[in-house]
């Protein structure tokens, strides 16, 4: 097994955007190709491309690459040779669609099958809440004020249980949103960048009690990408490569346990344990993290899953400022899903984007001397296996 | 890199079927789990699952596995533990969706990431021709008698060019269909099993001149699956494992060249050349083959791409009987896409199913002493990168 490095990352700003799905996907790739730390890469050297999307439809990745040339021309960039003709595989795994494409690229380079892979993801979402129905496609729905929308409702149940068992408060939940907005405020790629107080968050419209609007991730459109290569050739392309130490995927069991309170931890704990075991690292070694904060309660429970605080003590942990600016383990330093946005296929790559910049030392909310970064992404619908993915990165130079 | 074996295969009969998409997908898996040559495998030992579909929608693989338990109960099979909770990734690549899931399983076991993977695919298609429009989803359309339907029309153009350049005749094209029907006649899993004469084929309704109805693959519903493991543990599960010698994926370039006559060969030639190079085999070593005969002309051109006959001489080659029953290199011995059917996500696995049975020695149209098998699958829409996949199998005991 070979070591693998990330040498280029890119993303579009996340927002409700007018561009077509293919343009958005192409724009994320173009941003990665013109990553200021990337050099000497020609598209003709890219051996394969893996694309993540939930709702992009058949051959979405191929179509996006086919759009590269004209999209570059529209932007006044001289198109280079080899923009198309690359083998493309499309990966779908709901909210982890992008991460699964990224992970496949990591595995294949690790295995020696390819040396250089372009992995990317995109999503174009409408407004409203994503349906969490097991049979659902990429449907969005308007909030019905008489019932809880499915995805927020599921996490709201976990929040109520957490509050009951551990004394976690609404203020603790609001702190996740306040922290998220504080980080997003200085990230031009984030969808929502206004700073908020705890009162602002608590007084916002209630989506699913106790989760107010600002404790729920918005629907978003965006594209993002990463260029991975064998570590042995990474220096050819970048002076600031980032190494992937491990990638772990676990699934909830049994099928319906996404609904169970315990399942908010169980597969995360297994994924995190495996990542610690494989890297020989412990929680105190993590300098900066991205976790899947689709809803504020999820982020609190992830703190506990990964051993950053004791079980049930995540409320106190955020109250201590540990995951906040200047804290011991800054979490979701780009604003996370709650503020930066959550365009499913692009989400995992946007996490990679943020962590690569943190390890390079030029992130919008830079953590001093960041050396080890933790990436966590989860996804799935009710009644089917939820997927939980952890990757660990290290500054590679 | 470790050697990888196939120890279990399964498929539903292919047809227009009333079962739901999830039931069809689950049925393919159940058939593989109860493969008569498979023993000692418990689902709890399966470490990951890769699913191929074009039109299955988000988390189709997870949903299909979640359906396993109740589907087994409906069939009077005692459900076993561990049927769910397996990490699932979903692969989409049009007609190669299943092959890409199969190939990912092969790569990951080869790389040592997993030891045992369940890979499967399914599709539920309506009647009519698949749209070949670049923007198309999984749309079907009625034949419009005033224009050529897109996919048949594209291949019809290649057929006309082949006839003009090389003197290939309508009869040569018809021979592909006659051979296909001859093989399908004894395959209970095939969608269409009536034997036909050359006249029957030539007198059938014209879809896109010179391709008559019997020279075009039908739309089909079906599910199929394969269980792969590291060769070092294969004997635990089977006395008749089949080894994967290589897997190669190439893509057409530039983007629009699917429309060009030459592109009917180019990426195939590159994929085939690479497969020969990696295995040290030559065309004369292949005992039995499955190639992507979506339309009769495609099969003829594949003969030439892979060096089984000279360029332009495929008409003479099939006339000689070489790919037919009793010939030197029997091709599409299960009836191929034209007669067995083409449910996109399941197609690649059905090819694996046939070739595994050929190498085990118990296929419906058994080739004597088959030792080396060739699998070829291609897919894609117009204007985006077509994907071409070649895998080579060997009797593993």
**Biggest β-sheet of chain A: count, sense, barrel?**
9 strands, mixed
Percent of residues in beta strands of chain A: 15-25%
CATH class of the largest domain in chain A equals Alpha Beta
CATH level-two architecture of the largest domain in chain A: 3-Layer(aba) Sandwich
What is the 3D shape of chain A? globular
String of helices and strands of chain A: EHEHHEHEEEHHHEEEHEHEHHHHEE
CATH-defined fold name of the largest domain in chain A: Peroxisomal Thiolase, Chain A, domain 1
Output the radius of gyration of chain A: 20 Å
Based on secondary structure, the structural category of chain A is alpha+beta
The count of domains of chain A is 2
Distance between the termini of chain A: 20 Å
Number of strands of chain A: 13
CATH superfamily label of the largest domain in chain A: Thiolase/Chalcone synthase
Q: Which strand order spans the largest sheet of chain A, edge to edge or round the barrel? A: 3-2-4-9-1-10-13-12-11
What is the topological layout?
Two copies of one chain form a homodimer.
Chain A: E1 4-11, H1 21-33, E2 48-52, H2 60-66, H3 68-74, E3 88-92, H4 97-110, E4 116-124, E5 129-130, E6 140-141, H5 150-166, H6 170-184, H7 198-202, E7 206-208, E8 211-212, E9 221-230, H8 231-237, E10 242-251, H9 266-279, E11 288-290, H10 296-305, H11 314-319, H12 336-340, H13 344-360, E12 372-379, E13 387-395
Parallel strand pairs in A: 2-3, 2-4, 11-12
Antiparallel strand pairs in A: 1-9, 1-10, 4-9, 5-6, 7-8, 10-13, 12-13
């Amino acid at each position: 097994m070979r070591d693998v490095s990330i040498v280029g990352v890119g993303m579009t700003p996340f927002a409700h955007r007018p561009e077509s799905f293919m343009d958005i996907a192409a724009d994320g790739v173009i941003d990665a190709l013109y990553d200021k730390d990337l050099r000497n890469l020609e598209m003709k050297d890219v051996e394969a491309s893996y694309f993540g999307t939930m709702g992009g439809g058949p051959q979405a990745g191929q179509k996006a690459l086919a759009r590269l040339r004209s999209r570059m021309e529209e932007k006044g960039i001289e198109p280079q040779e080899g923009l198309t003709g690359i083998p493309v595989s499309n990966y779908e795994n709901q909210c982890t669609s992008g991460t699964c494409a990224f992970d496949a690229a990591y595995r294949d380079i690790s295995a020696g099958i390819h040396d250089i892979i372009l992995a990317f993801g995109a999503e174009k979402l409408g407004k409203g809440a994503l349906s969490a129905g097991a049979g659902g496609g990429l449907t969005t729905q308007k909030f019905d004020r008489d019932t809880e929308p499915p995805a927020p409702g599921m996490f709201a149940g976990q929040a109520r249980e957490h509050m009951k068992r551990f004394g976690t408060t609404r203020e603790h939940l609001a702190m996740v949103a306040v922290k998220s907005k504080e980080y997003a405020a200085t990230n031009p790629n984030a969808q929502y960048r206004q700073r908020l107080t705890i009162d602002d968050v608590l007084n916002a419209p209630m989506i699913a009690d106790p989760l107010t609007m600002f404790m729920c991730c918005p629907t978003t459109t965006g594209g993002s990408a990463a260029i991975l290569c064998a570590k042995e050739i990474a220096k050819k392309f970048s002076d600031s490569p980032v190494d992937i130490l491990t990638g772990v995927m676990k699934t909830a069991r049994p099928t319906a346990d996404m609904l169970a309170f315990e399942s908010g931890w169980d597969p995360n704990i297994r994924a995190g344990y495996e990542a610690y075991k494989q890297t020989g690292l412990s929680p105190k070694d993590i300098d900066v993290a991205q976790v899947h904060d689709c809803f504020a309660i999820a982020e609190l429970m992830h703190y506990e899953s990964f051993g950053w605080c004791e079980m049930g003590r995540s409320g106190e942990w955020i109250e201590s400022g540990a995951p906040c600016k200047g804290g011991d383990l800054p979490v979701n330093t780009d604003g996370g899903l709650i503020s930066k946005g959550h365009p499913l296929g692009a989400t995992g790559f946007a996490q990679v984007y943020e962590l690569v910049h943190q390890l390079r030392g030029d992130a919008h909310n830079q953590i001093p001397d960041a050396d080890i970064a933790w990436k966590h992404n989860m996804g799935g619908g009710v009644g089917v296996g939820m997927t939980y993915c952890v990757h660990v990165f290290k500054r590679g130079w």
